[in-house]
């Protein structure tokens, strides 16, 4: 034990002489852990919120019954089931918007609700009578901001509810929505006999919904969280580059020490144990700091993420972090795995370290050549994997495999290409000095390889993601102009009011057209699809963002039996204009032909547009509260005032500019997280480059001292060093541009399509590239300055000392 | 042969080269009695250092027998060789091989501590005899070459090993400093009763030791 302690303390004494190296190791490990655990914290918080939302009605304890093939459960079937003695409780849901808030309203029938339901005991929050009689009670969580909109019953706080979820009596939802049939039924786990009875009584019209603790939200937001995870992992890997470089360098520096210890009788096993304990200690120190940093990063990003999830998916995610101990353990575990992965090579070398140093000085160059050959082979193999994945792969996972293999393969190729170019240049130099510069740069490549690869990854990801985001912004803004062509959008509190207001608006001379936006929600293969009803108007014919059309499309849709489908719908079911379409409807199914495909960015669910009359004829439980108004710009205020005077709440009228502003806000907050992670990755890559140069500068002195001795000034040597680093950074940045564009193409044409169901055009932004090249050069400049200043300040005695101490 | 601390029979060691394997030791027979100071002479490439490395368990012979401190080193595992180095012998190198992050005193006590045989009085005695008093807190980079080699000798003797192996210990020092260091080493070796086997090019240094062995083409002459 004492022997192990002595070896460990001797190993650790190295850091006393190189404190900055140790700090850099800790920074690398801490940043890697921080970015990864930060993203995981966000995901964990979101998942908690989804699970809480799904668990409102008992989660896994209760079964949920829905209409078959997307059909609603009819009141007749429900009554028949109750009469058959099966204890099923009806539930209706709706959404109420309150400013930027989206309130999920759950209507329950408390007397039939199973005992295990979280909200069964309404008596805890107030008497059952209060809940079902008079104005009723709205049960809310303590986290839901009060006051609630005035149309809701008085609020009463109840435990076990997620934020912005409100439980009311089912009659409230029925009255407001104009619907009578329940959205679904809930029950305790029923016997097989009951299952058979349900099937028999309803003739198969009611079925058990597959159990999923976290429900639709989890499925819908999977892609979003997967993207975050991918970025977190990328940052983690880039951070590990620093750890690998620092541990590798410290190993090289401590090689003589390790050999001396072996010569003094320390076994290789004892050295491996000591090195492993050193890594473990670093993880405990830096990993813990990283976790705290990750918590802070997550706290600062979570409000934006919550806003994005709310805007994109209608998911309510708590804006405050509430993390479980498992998050801390998992984060430290990941840090440990990463640190040992980064240190594995050094530990392996230590285990096999011969006590005597090899006597052949050329072995280093030969080993480097061998490494580069192996690296080139591995790069080609990975790029081959990318090609195969591109040709044969399907699904989001293969999209990420494609992206990962392209990124890693190209990063591995960088030093191989750089080495060959430098060799080629070296052979074409006329003077010994210029030959030395190229040869020496090639020799330095080995020490800089990892940091240059990290820089390449960070730059190309920045270009790729930047191109995607800017391209998306450009497309999205154009698309918003097309989609939001009407001047005013109205949402009435209920269907009756909506229909009345529509008629009123139609009578106003200031209004050019009233365009209904009626809808009904259906499910096709368990995927939620909204069927919209619209009336033919020049607004659509001139503006609607169509991706695929057919001859006489608008006329066909106006005449019924034709439908327009969203891009997500078309991709999901692999359909195009001319294909037949069957939508579940209360009458058993409505069949039409697809006439066109429109873009529907940002919508995680499917959308189908049909003629409004056809919609009302085939679907009974319609949401008819919404309509759009075409109004001359100078009449907007007048029309708005008239509608308010007619009794419509002011917040129910939204003008085009507000919708656009809100959409843009959702867009920006969605990508704020991505861009923040992007920037952090670049910062980490900058640190990686800085650390490599700083540590290399110690090894450089013996290489530079002979040149100084031959008559070159330290200033000249400094300029050469600076030029060399800027050259390498420029080469890396130029290499990053095509890689970034490939990445952008994969993101927009593969990942986006798989994750969200829509494809984006790729736009080029050369100014972005120039700024990133500038940033890369700046990073290299800053990273080079300190080592160069150190060289400038190195006293001649130290340079002479290189010769006297040379071994 | 009963009191031989190092004994080799038909020892063979080859190294790969561009033209095939080269035999550096080619059937070497060797005996060194306990308590002797001996020099191993020979031209470059004659196999002196290789033999010293085999004795020190730093390398493994291809064939033959080699007994060191009563142990057949050809049969020892890597851990067994580590134990031999730690417990039974010590090495002094031409390049000093000090641990740069440990100070003079810690460097001297390192191997003895590893073997669990730290003796503060003996360490103080060594520091004083080696002329390192007042330099105990300094680090190797703050010492001259002669001082560094004295620290290396102190480290080798701090655990009172029965066998000391030295590979041209004064090869990096000027003649005067080398003589001083050699005087100190011989005095301390004799004081501790250890056996010394030293590789050297210098016949002058060899003359100061009890015995001399000369190697030529991998065999004793």
Give an overview of the whole structure:
The complex is a heterodimer of chains A (807) and B (221). With 807 residues, chain A is of the alpha+beta class. Among the domains of chain A are: 74-204, no CATH class; 494-648, no CATH class. In chain A, 63% of the residues lie in helices and 13% in strands. In chain A, strands 11, 12, 13, 14, 15, 16 and 17 form a 7-stranded mixed sheet that branches. A 6-stranded mixed sheet of chain A has the order 6-3-2-7-1-8, covered by helices on one side. Chain A has a 4-stranded antiparallel sheet with strand order 10-18-9-19. Chain A is elongated. The model of chain A is unreliable at 211-215 (pLDDT under 50). Chain B is of the alpha/beta class and 221 residues long. Chain B contains 7 helices and 10 strands. Chain B has helices spanning 48-55, 78-87, 104-114, 120-129, 145-158, 175-192, 203-206, and strands at 4-17, 20-33, 37-42, 63-68, 71-72, 89-92, 163-167, 195-199, 211-216, 219-220. Chain B has a 6-stranded mixed sheet with strand order 6-7-8-3-9-10, with helices on both faces. In chain B, strands 2-1-4-5 form a 4-stranded antiparallel sheet, covered by helices on one side. In chain B, strand 1 (4-17) and strand 2 form a beta hairpin. In chain B, helix 3 runs parallel beside helix 5 (145-158). The longest helix of chain B has 18 residues, at 175-192. The relative contact order of chain B is 0.20. The model of chain B has no long low-confidence stretch (mean pLDDT 89). The interface between A and B is medium-sized, with 27 and 32 residues.
């Amino acid at each position: 034990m004492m022997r192990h302690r002595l070896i460990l303390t001797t190993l650790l004494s190295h850091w006393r002489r190189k404190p900055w190296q140790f700090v850099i190791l800790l920074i690398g490990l801490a940043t890697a852990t921080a970015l990864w655990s930060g993203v995981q914290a966000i995901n964990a918080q979101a998942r908690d919120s989804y699970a809480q939302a799904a668990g409102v009605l008992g989660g896994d304890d209760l079964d949920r019954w829905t209409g078959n093939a997307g059909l609603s459960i009819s009141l007749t079937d429900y009554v028949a089931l109750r009469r058959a003695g099966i204890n099923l409780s009806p539930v209706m849901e709706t959404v109420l918007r309150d400013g930027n808030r989206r309130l999920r309203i759950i209507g329950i029938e408390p007397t039939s609700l199973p005992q295990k339901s979280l909200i069964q005991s309404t008596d805890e929050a107030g008497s059952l009578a209060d809940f079902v009689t008079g104005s009723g009670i709205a049960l809310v969580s303590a986290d839901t901001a009060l006051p609630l909109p005035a149309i809701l019953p008085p609020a009463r706080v109840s435990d076990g509810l997620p934020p912005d979820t409100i439980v009311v009596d089912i009659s409230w939802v029925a009255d407001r929505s104009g619907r009578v049939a329940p959205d679904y039924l809930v029950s305790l786990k029923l016997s097989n006999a009951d299952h058979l009875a349900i099937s028999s009584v309803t003739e198969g019209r009611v079925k058990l919904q597959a159990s999923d603790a976290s429900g639709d939200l989890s499925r819908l937001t999977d892609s979003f969280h997967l993207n975050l995870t991918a970025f977190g992992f990328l940052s983690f890997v880039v951070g590990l580059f620093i750890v690998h470089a620092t541990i590798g360098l410290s190993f090289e520096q401590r090689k003589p020490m390790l050999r001396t210890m072996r010569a003094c009788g320390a076994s290789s096993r004892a050295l491996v144990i000591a090195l492993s304990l050193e890594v473990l200690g670093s993880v405990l120190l830096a990993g813990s700091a990283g976790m705290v940093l990750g918590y802070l990063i997550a706290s600062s990003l979570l409000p934006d993420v919550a806003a994005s999830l709310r805007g994109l998916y209608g998911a309510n995610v708590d804006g405050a972090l509430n993390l479980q101990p498992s998050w801390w353990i998992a984060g430290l575990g990941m840090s440990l795995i990463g640190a040992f992965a980064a240190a594995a090579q050094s530990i392996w070398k230590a285990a096999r370290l011969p006590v005597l140093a090899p006597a052949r000085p050329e072995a280093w160059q030969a080993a480097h050549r061998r490494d580069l050959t192996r690296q080139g082979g591995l790069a080609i193999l990975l790029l081959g994997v990318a090609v195969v994945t591109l040709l044969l792969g399907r699904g989001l996972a293969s999209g990420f495999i494609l992206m990962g293999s392209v990124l890693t393969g190209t990063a591995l190729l960088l030093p191989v290409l750089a080495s060959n170019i430098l060799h080629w240049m070296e052979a074409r130099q006329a003077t010994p000095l210029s030959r030395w510069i190229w040869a020496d740069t090639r020799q330095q490549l080995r020490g800089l390889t990892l940091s240059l690869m990290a820089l390449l990854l960070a730059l190309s990801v920045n270009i790729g993601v930047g191109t995607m985001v800017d391209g998306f912004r450009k497309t999205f803004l154009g698309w918003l102009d097309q989609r939001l062509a009407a001047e005013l959008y109205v949402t009435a509190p209920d269907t009756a009011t909506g229909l009345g207001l529509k008629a009123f608006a139609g009578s106003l001379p200031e209004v050019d057209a009233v365009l209904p936006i009626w809808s009904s929600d259906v499910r096709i293969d368990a995927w939620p699809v909204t069927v919209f009803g619209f009336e033919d108007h020049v607004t659509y014919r001139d503006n609607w963002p169509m991706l695929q059309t057919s001859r006489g499309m608008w006329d066909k849709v106006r005449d019924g039996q034709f439908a327009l489908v969203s891009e997500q719908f078309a991709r999901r079911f692999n359909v195009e204009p001319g294909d037949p379409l069957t939508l579940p409807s209360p009458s058993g199914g409505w069949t039409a032909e697809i006439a066109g495909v429109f873009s529907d960015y940002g919508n995680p669910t499917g959308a189908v547009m049909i003629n409004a009359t056809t919609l009302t004829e085939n679907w009974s439980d319609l949401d008819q509260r919404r309509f759009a108004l075409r109004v001359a710009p100078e009449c907007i205020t007048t029309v708005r005032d008239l509608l308010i005077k007619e009794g419509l709440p002011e917040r129910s009228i939204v003008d085009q500019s507000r919708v656009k502003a809100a959409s843009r806000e959702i867009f920006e907050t969605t990508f704020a997280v991505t861009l923040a992670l992007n920037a952090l990755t670049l910062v980490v890559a900058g640190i990686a480059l800085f650390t490599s140069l700083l540590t290399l500068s110690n090894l450089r002195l013996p290489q530079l001292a002979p040149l100084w001795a031959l008559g070159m000034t330290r200033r000249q040597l400094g300029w050469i060093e600076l030029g060399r680093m800027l050259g390498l950074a420029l080469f890396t940045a130029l290499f990053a541009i095509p890689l970034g564009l490939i990445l952008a193409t994969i993101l927009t044409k593969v990942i986006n399509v798989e994750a969200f169901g829509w494809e984006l055009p790729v736009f080029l932004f050369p100014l972005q590239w120039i700024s990133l090249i500038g940033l890369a050069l700046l990073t290299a400049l800053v990273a080079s300055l300190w080592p160069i200043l150190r060289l400038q300040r190195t006293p001649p005695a130290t340079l002479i000392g290189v010769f006297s101490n040379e071994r | 042969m009963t009191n031989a601390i190092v004994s080799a029979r038909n020892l063979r060691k080859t190294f790969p080269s561009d033209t095939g394997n080269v035999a550096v030791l080619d059937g070497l027979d060797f005996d060194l009695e306990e308590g002797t100071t001996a020099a191993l002479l020979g031209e470059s490439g004659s196999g002196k250092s290789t033999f010293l490395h085999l004795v020190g368990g730093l390398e493994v012979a291809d064939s033959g027998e080699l007994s060191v401190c009563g142990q057949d080193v050809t049969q020892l595992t890597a851990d067994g060789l580590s134990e031999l180095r730690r417990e039974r012998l010590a090495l002094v190198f031409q390049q000093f091989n000090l641990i740069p992050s440990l100070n003079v005193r810690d460097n001297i006590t390192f191997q003895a501590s590893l073997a669990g045989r730290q003796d503060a009085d003996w360490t103080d005695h060594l520091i004083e005899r080696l002329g390192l008093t007042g330099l105990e807190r300094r680090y190797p980079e703050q010492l001259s070459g002669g001082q560094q080699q004295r620290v290396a000798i102190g480290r080798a003797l701090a655990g009172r090993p029965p066998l000391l192996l030295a590979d041209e210990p004064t090869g990096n020092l000027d003649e005067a400093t080398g003589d001083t260091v050699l005087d100190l080493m011989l005095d301390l070796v004799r004081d501790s009763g250890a056996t010394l086997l030293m590789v050297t090019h210098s016949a002058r240094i060899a003359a100061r030791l009890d015995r001399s062995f000369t190697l030529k083409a991998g065999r004793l002459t």
